[in-house]
Specification:
The chain is an alpha/beta fold. Helix content is 46%, strand content 12%. Helix 6 (117-125) links the parallel strand 2 and strand 3. It starts with a helix and ends with a helix.
């Protein structure tokens, strides 16, 4: 029988009749290796075409395209909920499932976290574990109000769900001035904390935009700071409290010299950098983040993923 006919027959038996490769090999008097080669060739040549009817398939395709386009280690794309109020919950579920798998596979010694509504939702959906060897670290200063923006509460809750060690970063997100920041970080205790912040194996952050939907714009900017001034110098949002432009570069604004968080150059040294955010108001900052290689893993929603691929 011609090789082409064998290929078609093997593909039919496998995909239509549901036989295993071993059963096909026995029926057609072939080796299992030869059957495997025929099945692979049938897919490659378009003799067999695989289609998925599950709505999850669209997200998987987007994940693959995001990884290829932006050189990501991994991408997680969740369905965009009809109700925008449920977006943080959807992202949190996707992030929790990914972190559960990642922690079991990599057994990290340390994880650095930021703050935000998506991180809060992630904690509520993670599988409780017992990881006393893991250290959870705050990566940035925060505010004293609200569970989403209280760095103490976020890092403590992560440590509780993992039964891990907890290390706080007891500082505000912004110092009063660049001089105040230098005075704080040159103290030996803060100098050590800053160094350890970027010595983590995994970081998990969200990004902020420059609209009124941003918790930081509403509550976190120092008194007298006008978000319009940040936009005027090219800011599209922030990562670790540092405002960046469309290319992922820190903008020329005094706020970036006041932030109590690691420099982006030090942040890049973290091997696994997970960023989770979504929604139309986050498209510009997410695009800047992935295009600049500031994330190695992206967790977002389908509509945001399509927007990123269209921009990229």
């Amino acid at each position: 029988m011609e090789s082409h006919e064998l290929k078609i027959r093997a593909a039919w038996l496998y995909h239509v009749e549901g036989l295993t490769q071993a059963q096909i090999a026995e029926r057609m008097y072939l080796t299992r290796r030869r059957v495997n080669e025929f099945l692979a060739a049938a897919l490659e040549e378009g003799i067999v075409r695989v289609s998925f009817t599950s709505p999850l398939a669209a997200g998987m395709e987007l994940e693959s395209r995001l990884q290829e386009r932006f050189g990501l280690e991994a991408a997680v794309v969740v369905p965009t909920p009809a109700d925008p109020q449920l977006l943080h919950q959807a992202l949190g579920r996707g992030a929790a499932a990914y972190l559960d798998r990642l922690i079991q596979a990599r057994k990290p010694r340390s994880i650095g976290v930021g703050w935000g509504a998506t991180l809060r939702e992630t904690i509520t959906h993670m599988t409780p574990a017992s990881e006393p060897g893991i250290e959870l670290r705050s990566m940035m200063g925060g505010l004293t109000r609200g569970s989403e923006i209280n760095t103490f509460e976020v890092v403590r809750a992560f440590a509780q769900v993992l039964k891990a060690q907890c290390h706080y970063f007891a500082a505000p997100i912004y110092a009063e001035s660049p001089q105040s920041r230098e005075a704080i970080i040159t103290q030996s205790v803060f100098e050590r904390i800053f160094r350890q912040t970027c010595e983590v194996d995994i970081s998990y952050l969200s990004v902020g935009d420059v609209t009124r939907q941003s918790l930081q714009v509403r509550y976190g900017l120092p008194a007298g700071t006008d978000v319009g001034d940040l936009i005027a110098v090219g800011a599209v949002g922030d990562l670790l409290g540092r405002y960046i432009d469309t290319e992922g570069r820190p903008v020329a604004h005094p706020l970036n010299a006041q932030v109590l968080a690691p420099d982006l150059a030090d942040y890049r040294k973290i091997p696994c950098r997970i960023v989770a955010s979504g929604g139309p108001h986050k498209h510009a900052i997410l695009s800047a983040t992935v295009r600049a290689g500031l994330a190695t893993v992206l967790i977002t929603d389908e509509e945001s993923a399509r927007a990123l691929l269209a921009d990229g």
